[in-house]
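Notes from hallway chat w/ T.B., transcribed later so I don't forget. T.B. wanted the structure written out for a chain they're using in a teaching module, and asked if we could keep both sequence and structure tokens in one place. Agreed to drop them here.
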Amino acid sequence: MPGDSRKEEGRKGEERALVALKKDGYRIIEKNHRNPLGEIDIIAEEDGYLVFVEVKKRNFLKFGSPLDAVDKNKKRHIIRSAMYYLKDHRCLDKKIRFDVVGIDGSGVRIIKHAFMAE
């Protein structure tokens, strides 16, 4: 089934992202966090920040880089979900950051401060 193989590819991508993040010093708090406003792939702490991480994997660059997949609409959903998380967990005073992990044929790339809450 195509949907199942896509989910499996996504899961493998997230596992690669977790390995890279841990190696880079991130402390993983939660993965695949869901709330009424959406899902956040990974929530972690790193360098004094609470970090909301979006993971994007691309097998073929003809569809753009993994980072191209995080468009304005996707960013808006991630930010809203993150704000809900902060309120729900009573941690509005935390420094936050939005990172993206891009995975493609050349490897795994962590983009810190990939975008900001507007």
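Follow-up for T.B.: The chain has a mean pLDDT of 89. Might be a good example for the class.
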